Amino acid sequence: MTLTSKHTTTRVEFDLPEYCVRRRYQDFDWLKMKLEDSQPTHLIPPLPEKFVMKGVVDRFSEEFVETRMKALDKFLKRVADHPVLSFNPHLNAFLTAKDLNKRQGLALLTKVGESVKQVAGGYKLRARPAEFCAMGEYLDTFSQKLGTIDRIAQRILREQSEYLTELREYGAVYSSWAASEEQLQRPLEGVAGCVTTSCGALEDLSDNMSQDFLPVLREYVLYIESMKNVLRKRDQVQAEYEGRLEAAVLRKQEDRTPIPVEVEKCQDKVECFNADLKADWERWQRNKRQDFKQLLTGIADKNINYYEKCQTAWESLITVLQEKQTEDKTSETN
């Protein structure tokens, strides 16, 4: 699947003010991997799963393709809106390279930045600072809440699908019945029409849940894993610093040697990690509040719209029945 995305920028490092690029999923995966390697102290937005997305069964369906494209476009916008990631040379390459599949001219970029993978070696973290412990606890709780909501939403979606199947059959019975009941034809056709309207309203409600509600939940589940990964990297850097510092202190006590420069560099890494992580945490919280306010408002609007459509349809049936009753009384009188 290929995504066409348009990106506008005023940055001087870009040759053009606007780019329209066509990229495949593996190109986004490449960008995410390079961002993680070159910006290890920052939270990298998650990508949607490659093959399976909850709420979507057929990965070749139009619904799945559209949901995937929206998620990938959101990933790119989140990266482009980040005050640090937006300056990353790999993003520049992603937006400007004519053929990412051949990777021509991109090999040199693989060495940009410094990865902290396995940086801790044999060092063991003594204690995570309180503020980062609080982050970890919040992520665990938030993950549990989202997991519960996701499971219930999945069940509701399945039940709505089963109900929709029954409802369509229910309406069809009234339509066929109306064909053989001349005196009841209008009321029966009215019921069938109300059921058809209710089916359409329920289908719209279910589509909103599968295409808009569930993908946001899933994105934040993946976001939690990304944030936990950054926390683990931060812990590795702190563990390395504590281990090197302890060894340096012991050597200083024995032969009065000064603290090595490597220890000071490790301390700088820890401070940089802490500052970047806290800044990204605050930005993530702001975005989360905004996203979920919008999501919940959308849920309310969709449910109100669903019930209003159903109510209007069934109220119109009452009018039909009343008119039919008046006609019958008039006929009896005559």
From TrEMBL:
Gene3D superfamilies: Arfaptin homology (AH) domain/BAR domain, Phox-like domain. It comes from the Eukaryota. Residues 1-102 form the PX domain. Keywords: Protein transport, Transport. SMART domains: PX (SM00312). Belongs to the sorting nexin family. PANTHER family: SORTING NEXIN-30 (PTHR45949:SF1), SORTING NEXIN-4 (PTHR45949). This is Sorting nexin-30. The gene is SNX30_1.
